[in-house]
User: What shape does this take?
Amino acid sequence: MTGRPRDDLDDIDDHIDDCRRQKSEGTMHTTAQRPTPRLARLLACAAVVPVMFVAGCSLGSDDSKEPASGGEASKSAKAGPTVAPAKYAKLPRPCGVLGKKTVKDLVPKAKNKSGAEGKSADLESRSSCSWNGLDGFQYRWLDVSLQRFASDTALGSGSKRAGDYFTKQVAAVKSVKDAKKLKTGTAAGVGDQATTIGYDLKKDREDFRNQAVVVRTANVVITVNYNGTGYEDAKTPKADDMVKDAVRAAKETVKAVEDTSK
Assistant: This one.
């Protein structure tokens, strides 16, 4: 098909040359001045060919102006809910958060210096460790628990969820049954939030002094429970000393959590 128009134009040129030659020779008749049917068809074809090419270019130009439907759809699509990622993705081993000297100072002559790890189905999310010991007639018990919260688009960021749990944990410690001389305070410079709760509690006819520290560091909540008593005629430990020792344990635990992200 592409070679046909060129041959038809050649036929037209040849016919025109013949006409000119006949005219110059004076032999061209009146009927010859009219285009023959074949010549008319060739002229029509010659006129149509350029139009076909223009139409083809015109179609191509229109196609190129059509917008991409995929791009428009992606712009109109609504973005899903987002939440800030949690800072800590795991917890340290609970019995390794305190140094040996700290354990020795807070729990003299501990039965198990390495600590007793609490049971947990998911140590990356919740864990605990405890120590206890009797030095003469002085008894001490120390427990450190950790709970980590992951970010969730439905529940909120890990830090927010930890903050909610922190508030509930403080309230739970303050609501201990039969607690006396309840005293609360804050521990400056410990994590993002830190509350101290101290109280006295009689157990097995002995007066126990209890001190708790609840700390939130980003998406992790740490609860330190520390208590002691003096059996027989031994003195009950001082409240100020208990607060200082419990805060010391809380600080070391926060550092252990922070080290997991390094």
Q: What stands out?
A: The radius of gyration is 46 Å.
